[in-house]
Here is the input.
Amino acid sequence: MTPSMRGGRRRIEPFRIRVGDSVLVDLRERLARTRWPDALPGSGWDYGTDLAYARELCEYWREKFDWRSQEAALNAFPNFRTEIDGQNVHFIHVRSPVDDALPLVLIHGWPGSVYEFVKAIGPLVDPEAHGGSRRDAFHVVCPSLPGYGFSGPTREPGWHPRRIAQAFAELMKRLGYARYGVQGGDWGSTVGSNLAVVDASSIAGLHINLVTGIPPQPDMTPTRAFFSDWRTSPDFDQLSEAERRAATEWVQFRATGVGYGAIQSTKPQSLGYGLNDSPAGLAAWIVEKFRAWSDCGGDVEKSFTKDEMLANITIYWVTETINSANRLYYEAARAGLTGPTPEFVTVPTGCAIFPKEPSRPPRRWAERAFNVVHWSEMPRGGHFAAMEVPELLVADVRRFFRTLRG
Here is the structure.
């Protein structure tokens, strides 16, 4: 532990996840008392989470899900907490057996958590033990976003992606890492991009698996690009068939798949009452995203097990952070930090494009926002790549950083 990690509010303390038995008993009791809504016959997932599957998942959560085993898996990694800018920040920190490994911060998104990276941390930290080469080793730092999971709720307004990025820059400084890499998806991509702006001189490279681009249209700001109809771009006819299809799918997603974001960006508190009180409601709100954003062909359990999904959902439940997590949408919208950063990201950037990711812009559009030096189009996988196809994500992270280690 370096001197900067000791004393006062800069202190970094070991943290052990331990959920009280009474919290788990209460969870099961609430699940048993669920007052289920009606559903139209044969509607399936058309109106949102399928009622039959929600019942099945919640019955499994109440009767069979073993939180203690998931808790032990998370505690198998060294966990810590520190206070930055008045906010608790929880993080996993695993040093590689390779002394000169490159530090790498892994940043999750919504509705995810540090649990997303459980299967990726080992191969990144100790590649030789997982069939890889020691030259690809990383010291991994995996923080819970402020307001998420074991970081606990945010306690004041203004925790938007830029402020979180500044907090993570301070975290890496406290850990003694003068040069490091960044990887993220969902909000992790947005926070990581902001981190690449506020701490550019320290960052070897930025790897993202949610990529947003800027079409070549007059006065197209990054935020407007995120919400725009990509088909109106002047160069749309010059795009490949696959690029045009991706642009059309993005427009469809913006029209039918972002109601959650509209609510969370405008009135998150109203939604929070139900999600923080009803575990069935919380599970239904989150599992629909695991299904819609994964490469599962409509069967979510082709991509994730019940235990994997429920471990992630349970983190929100036991920490009571779904409301503060949702607030990030509100804060980002007010700060104009939804989508690419207002500044061009000069840090070398690697983009991993998974086929079921809602946002898959043409490379040249991404190059209007990022210094793209690496572009991979993946054979399978979706939004939660670290959980769904960790082997593909890890391999691409390794490839990207090989030329940037210095």
